[in-house]
Design goal:
By secondary structure, this protein is an alpha/beta fold. The protein is built from 7 helices and 7 strands. The protein has a domain of 186 residues: 3-Layer(aba) Sandwich (Rossmann fold), CATH 3.40.50. It is globular and about 75 Å long. Pfam families: BMT5-like.
Length: 278
């Protein structure tokens, strides 16, 4: 009887149904693979792909990716990757030196930290973005002068690219998201990347709604109104933004040359001349 019971248990384990989370993870992988080019995208030259009318959000992450996030603010974006996109190897970093300092700026951040760590991912404190990788970069309110702000943020991005290249794996990508419109367009992020030996492989509209629970965190911390209530100021998740995917110039796919126009055939030409070109 013990042997039969053991055999029965083994058979039951072998036919165990996958969990709901596992099913959803597989669905996310299949969906992502089927719409790698979906969304409001641009080609390598920066021109919009007007033929693409699919407005489904583009998610540049897969569950099996090893993802490093820097300057994460309240960590709501990292939590969305872990909880809703099933990314299993996330390292989220913040500039604040401790959980206490982080929650002083973003009181709700503790819940996000717990959710991230509960799934086996990591939160690292005291990471200066100039030395590693960044997303939604901004130096904060160093100056109210637009030209100075542009220069400070360009310097930040140049340092960011310089440091990131040192640890970027062959064929790897660096992802940067910026708000659209001025003053962000004045940063000329494509040129900054180009001067750092990087090339924009693609870009697409960032859709905050694709990351449930995500809310944009300003560098200054939580904004309060005159009554001391949280919620004053603009909401970043409601503003148009664009994500840029950079690769090393040597790793970026080369543009496919357009075929040369064919010669106009004469009436007495035969079919063997179909491949002739100017």
């Amino acid at each position: 009887m013990p042997k039969k019971r053991k055999l029965l248990q083994q058979q039951m384990r072998g036919t165990k149904k996958p969990s709901q989370k596992h099913k959803l993870k597989e669905q996310a992988q299949k969906s992502r693979a089927g719409k790698a080019k979906a969304g409001n995208t641009e080609n390598e030259s920066g021109a919009p792909n007007t033929h693409s009318q699919d407005l489904k959000p583009t998610i540049p992450f897969s569950p099996e990716d090893a993802i490093l996030l820097v300057g994460e603010g309240d960590l709501s974006f990292s939590k969305a990757l872990v909880a809703h996109h099933y990314c299993e190897n996330v390292t989220a970093t913040v500039l604040e030196s401790s959980l206490e300092e982080l929650t002083a700026k973003y009181p709700h951040a503790k819940e996000n930290v717990e959710a991230i760590e509960a799934e086996g991912s990591k939160v690292v404190y005291g990471v200066d973005a100039k030395k590693m990788v960044f997303n939604f970069p901004h130096v904060g309110g160093k100056s109210k002068d637009v030209n100075r702000q542009v220069r400070y943020n360009q310097e930040l991005l140049v340092e960011f690219f310089k440091r990131a290249l040192l640890s970027l794996a062959p064929g790897g990508t660096i992802i940067v998201t910026l708000f659209e419109g001025e003053p962000y367009t004045l940063w000329n992020i494509r040129d900054l990347g180009r001067h750092s030996d990087l090339q924009v492989e693609r870009s697409f509209r960032f859709q905050a709604s694709a990351y449930p629970g995500y809310s944009h965190s300003r560098t200054l911390g939580v904004i309060k109104n005159k009554q001391g209530e949280v919620g004053g100021g603009w909401k970043g998740e409601d503003r148009p933004a664009r994500t840029y995917v950079f690769m090393r110039k040597d790793d970026a796919p080369k543009p496919v040359p357009k075929p040369a126009p064919k010669k106009r055939k004469r009436a007495d030409d035969d079919d063997d001349d179909d491949d002739d070109s100017d």
